[in-house]
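Appendix B. Extra example for self-study. Work through it before the problem class; the solution is given directly after the inputs so you can check yourself.
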Amino acid sequence: MIDDKECTHVHASSGPNLDGIRSFIGYALRRAQLCVFDDLIQALEEVGLRPAYFSVLFVVSENPGLNQSEVSTALGIQRTNFVTMVDHLEAQGLIVRQPAKKDRRSHALHLTSKGTAVFNRARDIQSEHEMRLIEKLGPGGREQLLPLLWRIAED
Amino acid sequence: MIDDKECTHVHASSGPNLDGIRSFIGYALRRAQLCVFDDLIQALEEVGLRPAYFSVLFVVSENPGLNQSEVSTALGIQRTNFVTMVDHLEAQGLIVRQPAKKDRRSHALHLTSKGTAVFNRARDIQSEHEMRLIEKLGPGGREQLLPLLWRIAED
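Solution. Structure tokens for the complete assembly:
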């Protein structure tokens, strides 16, 4: 039998040294982002939405009538990819494109009533997900984290 | 002419409302992670490495002789994807697989001399990238950010 101390020691010395890589901001960000998305992807499966689609519905819900390019710019999604996403949401009956008031050649986005219903359920799911993260971060963690992330994300 | 104040007001009221989505931890994480990776991907192009490959070389360099499954577990990369990555690094002459001492059926990973040279240059590039991020975060930012990210990334 190996006593606890030795066992711990063996374990510690034989395990890989990851101190260096874990101190890299990009690596830590990516690992955290993957964990968060794993949780959200799984939670949103109930309503058949991927996180990026949820974010589109969210922005359209908060800003009905915004045109396609305004939404894609706001979300930082490339125009071509965004058109495909809107096609998909339209085919599912969640969103409609209407001629924009200001410029009738551009497309204003609106939720349909089905879109609103799906979004409302997704919003609750996302709130529960957010609560899990807030709990993991501990008191004041979210308030510390968000401004740091936006400092990185903004030029 | 519209005076400054009105112009600002028009701009503020006509721009999309993104306060809600910007307060979501997952959304902020993803936007920050994409910015960081954009910068790192571009910087590492000089040595022909993607960030994930750099992280493999980094862990192998710090832990020569570690076996494949230990490296993939450490980095949270799925086994199948990881084997493809090691194939690629081996084909480029950066890494070699050798029979592991403990278990000769498993593969221990080592950098080749070419791998060491490429990695050393990549390490400098990554350090400069890290300095840019530290500067963006401001005094004490990195020290605040890292523990919060690992709180999320670990169970």
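Self-check: Chain B has a mean pLDDT of 90. If your reasoning did not lead you there, revisit section 3.
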